[in-house]
Design goal:
Elements: H1 2-16, H2 26-40, E1 45-47, E2 51-58, E3 62-71, E4 79-84, E5 89-92, E6 104-112, E7 118-128, E8 134-144, H3 147-161
């Protein structure tokens, strides 16, 4: 019995003793290098900021900010889509416009605070032809409630609970 165990252990050790680097196929290496070269030639979206805080604003205010960016990659950048997380957040962007390496542009984001009292955090999701394929920009603010609208909301809540 012990002889079998030693024989199996010896067989196991010998089968694992081979150099793993010799087992890598050269065509797999070539494919990996080709993918790396393709990734190096992709556009890269580099922002000056990815988040903006409007601070305290009044309910009903419409505020706007711009997110500046540069294509720091080595091929044309295209922003295919930009979507706000709700209808109150509207992006304006260079849609389907090739942006050459080294070129800079901006994405404007408007936020309408009507009926949005309290802390607000919204996002804009960009769909691009970069390696990641997606970027997220954030805006945030504290919206001071309009006193008249706040009374109306409170009256509606009281009526709903009665």
């Amino acid at each position: 019995m012990k002889t079998w165990i030693f024989a199996l252990m010896g067989l196991f050790i010998m089968s694992c003793s081979g150099d793993a680097s010799k087992k890598v196929k050269s065509e797999n290496l070539a494919q990996a290098e080709a993918r790396q070269d393709a990734n190096n030639s992709l556009p890269v979206l580099t922002f000056d900021k990815k988040e903006h805080d409007f601070g305290v604003i009044n309910e009903g205010d419409v505020v706007e900010t711009a997110f500046a960016f540069t294509n720091t990659g080595s091929s044309d950048l295209t922003i295919l889509d930009a979507r706000g997380s709700c209808g109150c957040t509207v992006p304006e962007y260079p849609k389907d416009t090739p942006i050459a390496p080294g070129e800079s542009r901006e994405i404007k984001v408007k936020f309408d605070s009507a009926n949005k009292p309290g802390n607000q955090t919204k996002t804009v999701t960009l769909t691009t032809n970069t390696e990641k394929g997606r970027e997220i920009l954030r805006i945030k603010t504290m919206v001071t409630p309009d006193p008249v609208k706040e009374q109306q909301r409170q009256a509606a809540r009281n009526q709903a609970t009665n």
